[in-house]
Amino acid sequence: DSTLLWGGRFEGGMDELMVIFNESLPFDKVLYKADITGSLAYAKALQQKGLLNENELEQILFGLKEVLNEWETGKFVIKQAVDEDIHTANERRLCELIGAEIGGKLHTGRSRNEQIATDLRLWLRDQLKDVTKALEDALKVCAVKAKENIDHLMPGYTHLQRAQPLRFSHWLLAHATYLLHDLERLQELQHRVNSLTLGVGALAGNPFRLDREFLRKELEFETIYPNSVAAVADRDFVAETLQWASLTMIHLSRLAEDLIIYSSAEYGFVKLADAYSTGSSLMPQKKNPDSLELVRGKAGRVLGQMTGFLATLKSLPSAYNKDLQESVEPLLDSVKTVTHCIKISTGVIATLKIFPAKMRAALTVDMLATDVAEYLVKKGVPFRETHHIAGALVKLAEDKDTSIDKLSLEEMKKISPAFAEDITKVFDFEESVERRSSEGGTGRSSVERQLELLQQKLGNF
Ligand code: ARG
Questions:
Q1: Which BP terms from GO are recorded (predicted)?
Q2: Does domain 113-361 fall into CATH 1.20.200.10?
Q3: CATH of 365-427, one of 3.30.930.10, 1.10.40.30, 3.40.50.300, 1.10.10.10
């Protein structure tokens, strides 16, 4: 079948379903620009080695730009059952536009195996710049929100049980810390994406000694991928991106979960803006945090794409195998999903309404039991003992249906003679928080230090 690029040795046609099963154009067409960018550079490299003359190069460059233009203006007409993937589609159209005599020279020494690897890297490199910007914006929004609300205290929870008082800012910056690490990981993995895999042939290398350093410069890659067999089958950059996306999604899902809980009436600490909420078709009073639920839910989707693709990659023999085509869809979808989720989460936080009085009202004096123990430590009682004494105080208050700050000094002294008048100073949430101002703690100066670190990393916000 001579209409197919690889049809030379074939007599019989393909099974109807096999045609659809095999074609990747429905999803890899988004790579049209990367594919043409690679071809423009490749044509120039061919001309350098005398494989195209000046006129042929000019025609090919002109034709490729025409094809690009058709994609960009929505005029590209896909030929069903012929355009198998983005590479064949672009080449077929190029040959129609400038004639197969010249157009047919573009693929000299080149394989689609190196093309898809190169296209994915070019495409992803651009996408990751957008993701980086989105993540930086998310961090800035967290920092601004934290700065504005540095005065407000809320209960900190472990096991979802009230634990110790925290600054709201400290809670928010906990999530920002995870996202900052995601940003760092993203910056690291981009170096491995940014490597030239063009000019390696199907698996054994380019037979015309094309200047790969020239290709690297043309396509602005950081490095030249050093092994042709590895180059055509390396989807580690896909795996790494999916792993990165999974972890980032997990972090966003944890932030989402906290906010979903905190926005329920039982807590009432925060309220989502209408822009990020939806209503119920049945219950008129409802305002649901669908934005955050979708973020939480989509974490499962990305995690699935990551594990699914790793399973595909596992045990593949060396060099190119068609299984590798299965890298494209999870990559495209995960990158889109994580980008949307970062942007949505950023919007939710930027527009989040905070209710400091509600947070404050949720603080209960028993959350200062640890502070009571620490008070006794300062009086010279060993910590193990103080923990017991403070526990006994909580128990007594519970039995008397009151709170620990309402017990009389006499009652306290019965439990431990170390209690003195100054115990009353312990029952103060602000003081409790401020005692924890060593680096990493919830005290104001520590929160300010965290904001400084973010500022160093992100610039002013
Ligand atoms: N469309 C393929 C992919 O996404 C690239 C084509 C290579 N195909 C081949 N039969 N060698 O991986």
A1: L-arginine biosynthetic process via ornithine
A2: yes
A3: 1.10.40.30
